[in-house]
Every structure is written in structure tokens, then in C-alpha cells.
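Morning run. Coffee first, then this:
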Amino acid sequence: MHGKTVVLAVTALGWLVASLIAFLLVATLTFAGIGLIGLLLWFICTRIELEKDAAVGSGWTPSLIASQYEARQKMSEEQRAAYREEQSVAMHSVRFFRHLGIALVVIGGAGFVWFQL
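And here it is:
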């Protein structure tokens, strides 16, 4: 089996598991489940937005942050422009999903309150 096929199969399995968890949350918690999914999506998008330029590592690896900074300083002007464009497109997607998460929180909260009255 080729590596790409394995990656696609694992990805499909991950989406299946995520959709089953989302279905179970909505089926058991109704509107509170929708709000919970929205809150989770909102949290993840906020974390991605806050850490867009940060190195993947921890406080124990300051050399990783330094090497990433040096690599950005050594980029040519075209590479910097391409990097900025890539970051811009990624942030537009993150912003869209963050707004979707906010909308799901509002819908879930409003539905929960509506059915509690």
C-alpha cells in the first residue's frame, strides 16, 4: 500500500470519528451540544490565530525559536512575500471558522435558553 493511501485512510477515519462524536454530542445534549462544538471550534481557531508565528515547541527549547527567527531573516524578498501571502490566506480561513464557532455558540445558547423557558 502506498503512503498516500494510508494517509488518506487515516484522515478519513479521523473525520469519521470526529463526525460521530459531534453527532453524539448533538443527539444527547441538543442545543447545548451545538454550543459546545461551537465553543471548541472558537477556542481552536483563537489558539491558531495567537500562535501563527510561534515555533512549535516549549519554553525548554528557546533554540528552536531562535533558529526560526534566523531562517526568516535569511529569506529573500520574494520568499517573504510568499510567506506573508500564505499566512494571509490561512488567517482568512481561520477567521471564517472562528466566526462559524461564534455563530454555533450563539445558536446553541439561544436554542438552549428557548427550550428551557
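The first helix runs from residue 3 to 29. Good start to the day.
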